[in-house]
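Give me the fold.
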Amino acid sequence: MRLILCSVAVLLASSWADELTLAFGFAALVGIFFGFYPAYLANKLEPIEALRSD
């Protein structure tokens, strides 16, 4: 019985760590995309045109 409980605890711990890593990676990718994509689009604009559209 103790072996089963230890096995379940290890399985849950590794699953928790995998989920945390996946969540952190997804959040990082979303942050990078929504940070760099608008900057990339703004970089392609002329300064006067960008100010005119505000």
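Residues 25-54 form one domain.
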